[in-house]
Amino acid sequence: MLTTSFTETFGVEHPVVQGGMMFVGRAELAAAVCNAGGLGIITALTQPTPDDLAAEIERVKSLTDRPFGVNITLTLSINPPPFAEYRRVIIESGVPIVETAGSDPTVHIEHLKEHGIRVIHKCTSVTHALKAQRIGADAVSIDGFECAGHPGEDDIPGLILIPAAADSLSIPFVASGGFADGRGLAAALALGAGGINMGTRFMCTAESPVHDDIKRIIVDASERDTRLIMRQLRNSMRVAKNSVSDEVIEILERGGRFRDIKDLVAGVRGRRVFAEGDPELGIWTVGLAQGLVHDIPSAGEVVRRTAAEAEEVIRGLERRIVTDPLVSAGGGR
After folding, report:
1. What is the pLDDT of residue 68?
2. Which of 79, 141, 166, 326 is found 20 to 30 A from 123 (Cα to Cα)?
3. What pTM does this model have?
């Protein structure tokens, strides 16, 4: 068994986290991950109202007795969601773990920790991770350039970002972006992370609420089938390559502004993609890791298989290390 600072801090068996994905982080998926020993996360803003979130939390509790989390993504908008009400529901429902993401989480982290809730903050840079550590986060999820959704604007891949985080942080962290199997988990551990966060991999599981047609598209896709949109607006987003993402890129390359693409990138259209199975209905997020996803197993199998593969990779590396016989004998070249 792989025991790390992350598993010990959050009381999970395996250092595998199911990302809190918009429209995907629902009770059945999160509970299946938890029951297999990972950390499952439901997404607060997937629920239309705080009361709906309360009901979804109760559904998770009915399906697992293991630790689980709730993601709350702090968006900046003209009409923001009632974050304080969502936070109140999380506290009153006895949720043990919260994953925050987006804009400054200070107020949220302080309030949640007053009630004994452990907080993971999702970051795309070491600078932001250090701030999260300073304001009291118990852990961070460090997202590399490979991730689905918003990878930040620095374009730093995990191979650099993960060890940079390890050199700077004193709290546990998980690596996110580009992970889909045990090889990735073993690599992340070697680079200094305490585990991995997987989103795209868990989209393609039996318990995922994503339409089967979209799951099959991901399985058949390669790592080349994503697009980065809204780069000109400094709000980069990694999404599936389709006619809608191509149109967004074309409009912005002609000098368009957000008002010219807002209807194309509307979240309600992405929700319809996942619900109805038509990949051309809107923008939908997926990571480079889709090139490593080749099946649609249960979420529990993904957790157990990932942990077992990582252990085998680590043991295999130990066996494959070839010691120079001259060095072993004390000689020289």
Report:
1. 98
2. 79
3. 0.93
